[in-house]
Amino acid sequence: IHAPTSMIGGRLRVSSDINWPYGHGIPLEDIWAREEAIDNAYSGSVSQLEGLVREYNVSYVYVGSQELSKYPNCISHFNSISWLTSVYNEDGQYVYQVEWIEIGS
């Protein structure tokens, strides 16, 4: 109840759905910064993704229909990254686990 709107079940989440946080009172400046971070995570370089994984302490990366529509090459990109492990792939939804040991936390 007292968690920020960007947290679900006590876990920070960075959503690729921009309308959701704005509708819950998150300032637009924060939303635009997050949108740029999300674009870099899904379509940027491996080093950009690694930087964001570290900054937000990411454990899992989710790819659903919305992400696939906006970032059509993200699956092949994520599959090529040694420290991302595919842990779920069904019905057009994908989840990758970040292997922190391989990144060198």
Please provide the ordered H/E string of secondary-structure elements: EEHHHEHHEEH
Question: What topology, given as strand order, has the largest sheet?
Answer: 3-5-4
If you compute it from the alpha carbons, what radius of gyration comes out, rounded to the nearest whole angstrom?
14 Å
Question: What is the domain total for the residues?
Answer: 1
* Distance from first to last alpha carbon: 31 Å
Principal-axes shape call: globular
> What share of the residues does DSSP label as strand, in percent?
15-25%
Overall pLDDT, averaged? 81
- Biggest β-sheet strands, sense, barrel: 3 strands, antiparallel
- The helix count comes to 6
Properties at a glance:
single chain, 105 residues, alpha+beta, 20% strand
Notes on the structure:
β4 and β5 (93-98) form a beta hairpin. The chain is an alpha+beta fold and 105 residues long. The protein has helices at 19-23, 28-43, 46-56, 65-70, 74-79, 100-103, and strands at 7-8, 11-12, 60-63, 84-90, 93-98. The protein has a 3-stranded antiparallel sheet with strand order 3-5-4. A two-stranded antiparallel sheet has the order 1-2. It starts with 6 loop residues before the first strand and ends with a helix. α2 (28-43) packs across α3 (46-56). The longest helix has 16 residues, at 28-43. The chain contains 6 helices and 5 strands, in the order ββαααβααββα. It has one domain (7-103). Residues 1-5 have low confidence and may be disordered.
